[in-house]
Amino acid sequence: MPTPLVSKRAPIYADVPDEKWNDWRWQLSHRLNTAEDIEKVLHLTESERKALQTQGLFRVDVTPYFISLIDPEDPNDPVRKQIIPVAEEMNAFTAMMEDSLAEDRHSPVPGLVHRYPDRVLMLVTTQCASYCRYCTRSRIVGDPGQTFNRQDFEMQIDYLKRTPQVRDVLLSGGDPLVLAPKILEELLTRLREIPHIEIVRIGSRVPVFMPMRITQELCDMLARFHPLWLNIHVNHPNEISLELAEACDRMSRAGIPLGNQSVLLAGVNDCVHMQRELVQKLTRIRVRPYYLYQCDLVEGSGHFRTPVAKGIEIMEGLRGHTSGYAVPQFIVDAPGGGGKIPVMPNYLLSMSDHKVIVRNYEGYVTTYEEPTEYKSHDPKTCKFCQSKRPEPGQTGLTGLLDGDQMFIKPEHFDELHNRDGIQHRLKDENKWKPLGIGSGETD
Ligand SMILES: *Cc1c(COP(=O)(O)O)cnc(C)c1O
Q1: What is the 333 CA–ligand 1 centroid distance (Å)?
Q2: Distance between CA atoms of 311 and 269, rounded to whole angstroms?
Q3: pLDDT for res 408
Q4: Which residue minimizes the CA distance to atom 1 of ligand 1?
Q5: What is the structure's pLDDT at 427?
Q6: How far apart are CA 57 and CA 138, in angstroms?
Q7: Which atom of ligand 1 is closest in space to residue 101's alpha carbon?
Q8: 116 CA to centre of ligand 1 in angstroms
Q9: Peptide bond before residue 85 is cis, with ω within 30 degrees of 0
Q10: Which pTM does this prediction carry?
Q11: Whose alpha carbon is nearest atom 14 of ligand 1?
């Protein structure tokens, strides 16, 4: 039997009338951010109290709805750890960075990250409904002084208009769903005026922090901008409440395909069995697990980091063990701006010229006999090959497989291997003689 979905309210909110509790504006204006306020809901630990009293820490704010999901007696509650700061946030660690994904370097205009050939990340606000302690963008998020303004927005739209290769715009921030409804609508309208933008996506934790924001009115508005996709961010089954389920149901009925992105966090969700429960519970509310991220090397999140091996172990415990729809991809977002890299257990064990050896999730090892008479399709008569859209700058592995390129060299490869001017001698064939094997020559 599946665990029933529950609805919770911390005792201090028992007397709040339902109209207020269910009003997202009330939730936003009653967020908790001081030790004094939070103490009314939870018994703070020394480490939490110290962090809450420290100046200059990444912003703290929690909606009454979300803090109510915490078991106040449990200092290790998985919801608590995501939003209540601890003193360990102040610890530095090896390889810690402020902008670990080098997003700023990939921004042609402020707030627009163009890292991949056909899609962009558009940071539309720095504000969120509550603040995740491990935020990858804590360098800008939460800071009321770092908002994107109209001029930045016009520059972003202008860049998109003159960049026809962009067919997918991912709205993020901060959280796009905390924008004033009129602003969000204007933003979507302006994007939809650009003919080459095929899909718009929203990355939002508002449904999780404040499901009451997902009103029917909002869903009707979003539905005018289809095809529109939305990813939520749930890390633990305790976040899947009755309210979240209802909010997701409203979005699904509005035709918005829903996905989930989680971050693998020590002490929150670094357990195979918990992850299985999480992904199954997500599919029950019609949210498809999309990505499970390795924690970024961002300041303040050292205590949340797990070895990459933990993620591999989790993927091993999901694939095959539960519905394929419920299995996310485990992603390491490469530090330095390398982008998202999927990582998984090895299923391909070996190969010969006619067979591959593969294993399944149970450890059953089998062979797949390769065809002996395979004729590849003919790119000269294939209309997709003939009309393939150019991917500017993509001369990587695709270039090796698909183009005339033979190798990829690390930077300075030629200089390094030009030992004693070999390249120079190669060019001048008269001067160069191969060393005769065993000829006794010494130069
Ligand atoms: C994550 C991300 C995207 C979207 O990546 P998908 O794998 O298509 O979901 C796009 N741009 C940037 C900069 C990103 O970090």
Answers
A1: 10
A2: 10
A3: 85
A4: 340
A5: 59
A6: 10
A7: 15
A8: 7
A9: no
A10: 0.91
A11: 121
Are 339 and 333 within 8 A, CB to CB?
A: yes
Q: Would the pLDDT of 376 be above 60?
A: yes
Nearest by Cα to 269 from 232, 231, 233: 233
User: Half-sphere exposure of residue 70, counting CA atoms within 13 Å on the CB side?
Assistant: 28
**Residue 172, pLDDT above cutoff 50:** yes
Could you give all domains of the chain from N- to C-terminal order, each with its CATH number? 1-345 (3.20.20.70)
What amino acid positions are annotated as catalytic residues? 115-116, 119, 128, 132, 135, 137, 296, 333, 340
Instruction: Find how far residue 277's CA is from the centre of its chain.
Output: 20
Say how many Å lie between the CA of residue 421 and the centre of ligand 1. Answer: 44
CA angle 393, 99, 163 (to 5 degrees): 35
Q: Is 113 in the pocket of ligand 1 (CB under 6 A)?
A: yes
Pocket residue to mutate for ligand 1, from 121, 298, 332, 343, most atoms within 8 A of Cβ:
121
pLDDT digits (tens, 9 = 90+) for 276-296: 999 999 999 999 999 999 999
How confident is residue 411, by pLDDT bands cut at 50, 70 and 90? confident
Sign of CA dihedral 193, 194, 195, 198: negative
